[in-house]
Design goal:
The structure holds two protein chains of two kinds. Chain A is mainly beta. Chain A is built from no helices and eleven strands. The N and C termini of chain A lie far apart (about 35 Å). Classes of the chains: A mainly beta, B mainly beta.
Chain lengths: ~110, ~120
Amino acid sequence: RKEVEQDPGPFNVPEGATVAFNCTYSNSASQSFFWYRQDCRKEPKLLMSVYSSGNEDGRFTAQLNRASQYISLLIRDSKLSDSATYLCVVILSGGYQKVTFGTGTKLQVIP
Amino acid sequence: DAGVIQSPRHEVTEMGQEVTLRCKPISGHNSLFWYRQTMMRGLELLIYFNNNVPIDDSGMPEDRFSAKMPNASFSTLKIQPSEPRDSAVYFCASSRRYRDLGSPLHFGNGTRLTVT
């Protein structure tokens, strides 16, 4: 089993739709979680952190389910500009910080 | 605030040549990461420094790759000799660890390397 798994997609959704991505992780001791966005031929950029209580930033909502070991990203009212690849990141901290990126989920928002 | 700065942005070289990629992390960040990204293999961690000390270099492909961090504000990734299969985008990222908590990585713009 991969340490961090994402559905590669692509997810093709119409403008205005709501879309959700999940990311599962294998190490239950993982402590920190993030969602990144990567546009074609650009660097990954931090989208939002993921907290146990869930958090929202405008149209974006991130949640963590420790019992089932997954994080999710919900995008409401999709815009054309949301088209990108979304990467989840799981960090296992301690003496050695192990950062694991998922392979990414590609989202294409269609007019 | 200046982000992570990488140079050069693009590098085209011939097989067998030495390539040096450079990175300046965000001031105050104490962790630095070198990644390689290709369509086939996605984002791969090459090496990770904490407080200028290499912590995990298990991702370095082979002896042709070496990385240094002589001080908190500069790191290099060197490939000698380069091969066509090294063609990829190389990203440098930094983060600020605090009390063993995981903190997000901030990426540079990357260096697009083409080895012919």
